Amino acid sequence: MKLSFFKKQSPEDTFRETLNKYQRAVADNPGDIRVHVKIAELYLEHNRKNEAIDEYILAARAYQEKRLLQIAVAIYTHALTIAHDRVEIYTELANLHLRNGFVGDGVSVLERLAEYYHSTGHDFEATQVLKKIKEIDPDNEFFKHKVEKFLTKKDLNEEKTLKAGPRHKWHLT
Asked: What span, in angstroms and rounded, lies between the C-alpha atoms of 9 and 28?
């Protein structure tokens, strides 16, 4: 018979210990954004999706501030694969693309947001996103065609849907 003098740590204890270690690393070196990504991964490993997404967003914003835009885009894109229902990720990613001149990428993200809204029964919001796509470059026939194709495919009437919705409810910046 084998005697064990060491108590085996529970997964929750291991999680807490690792999280504390990472939080100390953040406190010791607040400029190291990579630690936030590690914290997000830790949260994901322990099925804490919302906390993970919050950490990913924090990291992406920090990379944006440092003008490391490709890393920020990669983090936002990864976050969307985990939490396709977090609207703020779509809007932050779209705005990041648009502010930096990547109009096609920004429009692509907005299309995905419109699709998400439509699939969840929020046609007013979907239509507002489509309207924003047309406003980005009003003379761009390709964007106009994309919007019309979306409206036709989803059987939406832009004018009717926008009139039915509250005028003050939602605006994409």
From this structure: 26
76, 96 contact by CB (below 8 A): yes
Residue of 138, 124, 130 lying closest to 110 (CA atoms):
130
Using CA atoms, how far apart are residues 14 and 79, in angstroms rounded to an integer? 24
Q: Per-residue pLDDT tens for 136-170?
A: 999 999 999 999 999 989 888 877 776 666 655 55
Give every CB contact of residue 129 below 8 A, 6+ residues apart in sequence: 110, 113, 114, 117, 172
Are 10 and 16 in contact, with CB atoms under 8 Å apart?
no
pLDDT at 158: 76
Return d(Cα 25, Cα 22) in angstroms, integer. 5
DSSP state of 147: H
Here the tokens at position 17 are 């210990």
Helix (H, G, I), strand (E, B) or coil at 138: coil
Q: What is the pLDDT of residues 15-68, one digit of tens each?
A: 899 999 999 999 999 899 999 999 999 999 999 999 999 999 999 999 999 999
Q: Say if residues 56 and 79 touch (Cβ distance below 8 Å).
A: yes
